[in-house]
Design goal:
This protein has about 250 residues and is α/β, with parallel strands linked by helices. The protein contains eight helices and six strands, in the order E-E-H-E-H-E-H-E-H-E-H-H-H-H. The chain has a four-stranded parallel sheet, with helices on both faces. The chain has a two-stranded antiparallel ribbon with strand order 1-2. Helix 2 packs across helix 8, helix 5 packs antiparallel against helix 8 and helix 6 packs across helix 8. The longest helix has 25 residues. This is Creatininase family protein. Keywords: Hydrolase, Metal-binding, Zinc.
């Protein structure tokens, strides 16, 4: 049994430390911030060597990096989202896009009632297309909301971290996700990623057929190229890219 109380087995800890914010209400009051950061992940297969919670762990790692650099109100993650393309694998759990839309919208409304008037959604799962609609609709109503990171933020991070795999090829459980977990939660990366590379760049029927039509292992990418150093540099770059988002929301206030 570990000192943190988390159960451990041959593969390491059963629960990730540091995922939930430890603020008290007085901490939030003293900080006085009016911008909240909400990590949104998923609970879906990530091959045989990364945990089902990978996207949530990635979103939380990005959000923690942001909270360490800027005066924001860090929220606990949304851990189940739209993972329907991974339904063929055991362990994957999904909710509908309508439900995810409602959850994020309700969180934003609740924050607004308590005086936090801007929300940044940190998305860790590419299949959460509906989050773009949530932000668009909120912005059209005059509310302050943003979706982070954008594709351009990831591209800058890839270049600064020395990520070799292209965004098209690095689709799932590949170089980027493996790198971030090797840095933020190395105990969660099980043996096997070093030889799990698999590419499938032509995925034009993904929404119709799901991931199982393109990969048997659940991996699409080159996890063998992942490293903790790349993960550290990816997070550092994303934190730097967040600055203009905060300035934009602050200016709107």
């Amino acid at each position: 049994m570990s000192g943190s109380g988390a159960r451990e087995d041959d593969y390491g800890p059963a629960a990730a430390p540091g995922v939930l914010p430890a603020d008290t209400t007085e901490d939030v009051r003293a900080r006085g911030t009016r911008v909240a950061v909400l990590p949104v992940g998923s609970f879906e297969q990530h091959g045989p060597y990364l945990p089902l919670a990978t996207d949530t762990l990635v979103a939380c790692a990005v959000a923690r990096e942001i909270a360490a650099a800027y005066p924001v109100h860090l929220l606990p993650p949304v851990t189940v989202s739209c993972s329907h393309e991974h339904a063929s694998w055991p362990g994957t759990v999904s909710i509908s896009a309508v439900t995810l839309h409602a959850v994020v919208s309700d969180i934003a409304a609740s924050l607004h009632r308590s005086g936090v008037t801007a929300l940044v959604v940190v998305n860790g799962h590419g299949g959460n297309y509906v989050l773009g609609n949530v932000v668009q609709e909120a912005s059209a109503r005059g509310e302050r909301m943003a979706l982070f990171p954008a594709a351009e933020d990831w591209e800058t991070a890839r270049e600064r971290a020395g990520v070799v795999t292209s965004p098209l090829t690095d689709m799932h459980a590949g170089e980027i996700e493996t790198s971030i977990l090797l840095h933020a939660h190395p105990a969660f990366v099980r043996p096997g990623h070093e030889s799990a590379d698999f590419t499938a760049d032509d995925r034009r029927h993904l929404l119709t057929l799901g991931m199982s039509a393109y990969t048997e292992s659940g991996v699409i990418g080159r996890p063998s190229l992942g490293s903790a150093d790349k993960g550290r540099k990816l997070l550092a770059s994303l934190a730097e890219s967040f600055g203009p988002y905060l300035e934009l929301l602050a200016a709107a206030q």
